[in-house]
Amino acid sequence: MRRSNLGRRTRNATNQANYRSNRTAQERDDGNERERIRISQTREARARHSTNNRESLNRAAFSYDVSIDYSNYQCVVIGSMNSVCSHCKALKYKNEANGLCCANGKVKLIPLDPPPEPLYSLVSGIGTDSIHFLTHIQQYNNCFQMTSFGARNVVRENFMPTFKIQGQIYHRAGSLLPVSDSDNKFLQIYFMGNSPQEIDLRCAHNNLVKRSIVEQLQTLFHQHNQLIILFKTALDLIPSDNHKIVIRADKTPAGVDLQHTRRFNAPNIDEVAIVVVGENLESRDIVLHRRNDQLQRIKETHRSYDALQYPIIFWQGEDGYDFSIKMINPITGSETYKKVSSMNYYSYRLMIRENEDNHILKCRRLYHKYVVDICMLKLKRRD
Ligand SMILES: [Zn+2]
Questions:
Q1: Fewer CB within 10 Å of terminal CB in the chain, N or C?
Q2: Whole-number CA gyration radius for the chain
Q3: E strands of the chain, at which residues?
Q4: C-alpha–C-alpha distance, residues 109 and 88, integer Å
Q5: How much distance in Å is there from the Cα of 90 to the middle of ligand 1?
């Protein structure tokens, strides 16, 4: 390289560096904005002008163009769900992996029961009540959720109709009864002992819901939700405010009473401990006081986490994922020492199967929220 060229390049570089450092803040912002517009226009042009080649749709979702007919792209046509898993009868698309649904027969979970009326019809999508219910299903769930939703930092932006969450999400539960002069909140509403007042309180903070539907669902949960039934029984058994109830994070081994385990795929009163305040417990256990003003954070790895936050989906208070679920031998059906991962568990739960009604998927917008929740909290653990 000639010395004179080297000198010229160095001078150019120095000039550019001087220009950058001498710019005002306004000039710098304008320059950055111009650069951002240039990059986004280049990307859009690439997406628009590229045709039927597979690479051309990479990241195309970020520059979606209504004038492009994406169905003309070969890679968009994925066929129909006519591949059936021989182990679990999940319906899949042709190119989906064999093990996606049940790890080739190694994961087998107790099916979730379809809900009774009126919930069954409300999620059907047929009729005006159902259309109304599915439009406002998140508000209906808010009426009945037993834990509160929180985040370390919620950022609301003026021009955006959504909010961003920074840091961790958490769900918290209070005591079973409110401290004197406080309103009943979340789980405490179930134990007011006065049905019309209970409905009033549920509707007070959710003005888009119909009182008649809230009343019917309230009756359903009092009859069928095993967690509510369990909490009511425990409340009668707790001798004083100095005692608390403990629901273990993991299911205890099934033992000999398999029928009982099948019937109640949720914690039952035999699995609940009543202990005095001060006793040491595992950090993942749910510990509910009879009455105090403290909130407890529910760990996402507790098996009741999903049911406490999504009663419309888990209407019986069914167990979600926990660390004690084991894989089975696909040939003999017997349990192995290998644990089912949270990814295995939720892949299995969210599948459409032959001759099976998947209530979770029918909950539409609430299902979307639930999926985001489990992705944020559970799957990121990469266990
Ligand atoms: Zn399968």
A1: N
A2: 27
A3: 83-84, 91-92, 148-156, 163-173, 243-247, 272-276, 286-289, 296-298, 326-328, 335-339
A4: 10
A5: 5
CA of 92 to the centre of ligand 1 (A): 9
Q: What is the per-residue pLDDT across 27-65, written as a single tens digit (0 to 9) for each?
A: 888 888 888 888 888 877 766 655 545 556 777 888 888
Instruction: Determine the distance separating the centroid of ligand 1 and the alpha carbon of 250, expressed in angstroms.
Output: 25
> Rounded to the nearest whole angstrom, what is the distance from the C-alpha of residue 112 to the centroid of ligand 1?
16
**How far is the centre of ligand 1, averaged over its atoms, from the C-alpha of 95 (Å)?**
14
Question: Rounded to the nearest whole angstrom, what is the distance from the C-alpha of residue 22 to the centroid of ligand 1?
Answer: 64
Residue-wise DSSP of 59-126: TGGGG--TTS-GGGSGGG----S-EE-TTT-BEE-TTS-GGGTTTTTT---PPPPPP-TTHHHHTS--
| Cα-to-centroid distance, 301 and ligand 1 (Å) | 24
Distance (angstroms) between ligand 1 centre and the Cα of 100 equals: 7
CA of 218 to the centre of ligand 1 (A): 36
Domain locations in the chain as residue ranges: 131-324
Distance of CA 330 from the midpoint of ligand 1 (Å) = 11
Q: What is the dihedral of CA 104, 109, 111, 112, to 10 degrees?
A: -130
Please give the angle made by the CA atoms of 243, 319 and 284, to the nearest 5 degrees: 50
3-state secondary structure of 35: helix
d(C-alpha 185, C-alpha 146), whole Å: 8
pTM score, whole prediction: 0.76
